[in-house]
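hey team, just a heads up i'm posting the complex here instead of the shared drive bc the drive is being weird again. everything in one block, sequence lines first with there labels, then the predicted structure for the whole assembly after. its two chains so it's a bit long, scroll down
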Amino acid sequence: MKLASLKGGRDGQLVVVDRALTRCVPVPQIAPTMQSALDRWSVTEPLLRHVAGVLESGDHSEARAFDARECAAPLPRAYHWADGSAYVNHIELVRKARGAEMPASFWSDPLIYQGGSDDLLGACDDACFVSEEDGIDLEAEVGVITDDVPMGISPEEVAPHIVLLVLINDWTLRNLVPGELAKGFGFYQSKPATGFSPVAITPDELGGAWRDGKVHLPLASFINDRPLGRPNAGVDMTFDFHRIVAHATRTRRLGAGTIVGSGTVSNVDRSAGSACLAERRTLEVIEYGTQRTPFLSFGDRVRIEMRDAAGTSLFGEINQQVVSFHSHPLPAQDSHG
Amino acid sequence: MKLASLKGGRDGQLVVVDRALTRCVPVPQIAPTMQSALDRWSVTEPLLRHVAGVLESGDHSEARAFDARECAAPLPRAYHWADGSAYVNHIELVRKARGAEMPASFWSDPLIYQGGSDDLLGACDDACFVSEEDGIDLEAEVGVITDDVPMGISPEEVAPHIVLLVLINDWTLRNLVPGELAKGFGFYQSKPATGFSPVAITPDELGGAWRDGKVHLPLASFINDRPLGRPNAGVDMTFDFHRIVAHATRTRRLGAGTIVGSGTVSNVDRSAGSACLAERRTLEVIEYGTQRTPFLSFGDRVRIEMRDAAGTSLFGEINQQVVSFHSHPLPAQDSHG
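-- predicted structure starts here --
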C-alpha cells in the first residue's frame, strides 16, 4: 500500500496512491490526515488497504490523477524525527576529511540525533537556505515510520512496529556541523527542514528487498540531473532499522508516527558513488589530494529516487530546488498549502 | 490567562483555568486541544481570554473544579521541543565536575539541543525509568511556547511570538550524558520523557516579573519535600529567551506550539541552592572534596513550583514520583487518559 499527503492545511490530506503512482483517492471517511491514520493504525490499516485494492483494480469512482508536486511530506509535521547514522563507513570518511578521529565504539553503539520535525518538506518543495556560505549539502536516506513503540524493546521485537517506509533528504549545512559537534549538544542550526518522498509505502511493497531490517535496493541521487551515486541501502548498513529503533527505545516510548532515518547511505565499494557531497569531496581528497566538487548553489536541483529491480519508482521522486531565503521568503506555516 | 490540557486522548482536552488554579472550563467550541488553539492563535486567543474573564468573575455556568492530577502536559505531544542552556554558570560547574573543559564560546554562542517531544509528561505523572544506575536527575527550568516563528529573525523580533510560558522538569539520566556528549550527536537516551507544569500561562500573568525575555522569580525545587534550591530564573541567565529563540530560527522556521526551554536554572550565588542534583553534587565536591547527595532512587518525589511575590503559585506544581519501569510498565500511548 502507498500513501501520501496532499498539500492543504498544516497536516495535509491523506490519500491512497496506486502502485504506479498515477492515481490517488482521498479517504476522509477513514482518516483525514496521515497522523490520524497512524494514531489508530490497527483500525485504519485494513480499511486503507481495502481502498488500495479497489484503486489498483481501476474501479474506484473517486480516483483522481496523482501529481507529486501536490504532495506535502507524508507527515508535514511529526512528533518525533530521529536520524540514525547506520552507515558507519560514511561517518569514518567524513570525519577523516575534517581530520577528526572516529571512536571505535561507533562500530558497535548506534549514533542517533533528534531532528526538527515541526516543518517537513514535500518532495517538490523548494529547499530554502540563508546562505551558500553555510555549505549546503544533501543526504539521501531511507526512513521508517513506526506505530506506538514500547520502552525498552529488543531488536527482535521491532519489525511489527515498522509500518511505513519513506525516502529522506536530510539537508545539511556542512560548515555549521563542526561547531555544533564540538558543542556536543547535537545538530540544530546545521540541520534545517528535511525533505521527504511523495509517498510512504508499507514494507510489503518492497517484497524480498525488505529483509533483516534493511532495504536491499540502490538509492539514486542526482544533482542537476547528473548522477551523484546509487549506493545500495542494504549493503554496509552497520546498524539495521531493528537495531536503531531498539536503541531509540532504551529509555523512552516512541509515539505513533515516529520517523527514524538510516543516515546517509554509503557503500564501501566506491564505484557506487555517494549519497552526499561531503563524502564525495572526502573521496576526492583521498584520490586527488583536493576537493573538486563544490557544495550546492542557489538554483541547483537535487533528485533522489529508489527503483525496484523492474525499474519502477517505489516512492516517487524527491525533486527539490535549492533557493535563497532572501529571494524566496518562506510563507508562515499556517499558510501551508 | 491560564490554560491546561486535561487527560483524555493523545492530545488532551483544552481547558481555561482561573488565576487561583481552583476552577476550569472546557472550551471545545473554541479549540478542542492546546495544539489546535496554537494553530489558530490569533483567532483563538481573544476567545479564550473572554472565557477566562467570565471564569474569573465567577459567573461561568460550566466551570468545574480544577485538579492538577487530572492534567496531561499542556502539550501532551508537541512538534518541536528545543532546550537551551541559558545559565552558563550551570554548564561550567557540571563540566568542572566531570573534569571537562568548557569552551569560552559557550558564553557568547547559545547552546541548544532538540528533545523528544512525542511523549511529554503531565505534572503528576509517574516518571518511569529503566534503572537507578543511569543516574536519575531532575532539571528545573522555565519554558516558552511560541506561535509560528519565521526563519532568521532577530532577538528584537521574538517577543510577540512568545505566547505561553510553562515550568519544565527536563529529566536527565546523568550517567548516559558523557557517552552521548562524546559522540557529539546530542542527548537522546540521556533525556527521557520531560515533565511539565499543570498550566501554561500567558506572559501578562507574570506582570513586571516578565521582562527582557526573562522570568524574574525564584524557581523552587524539592526532593521528598526537602528544598533543593530556589535560584531566581531572571538572574545569571546568560541568554534570555529572545536570544535563544532567535538562535533557533537561524536556519529554520518554528511551527506553532514550539516549546523552548531555558535549561537548568542556576545562580552564581550559592545560597540559592540548585535546580538539579548534578550541580549540587559538583558544589559538594568543591566544598567537601566529595559528592554527598546521591542521584534519585525509585520512590523519590520531585516537586517544582514558582510563586509570585504574594506567594501565589503561578503554574501549579510539578509533582512526580520516580518509579521503576519494571514494576510500573508504561501503557501504550494510545491509551493515554
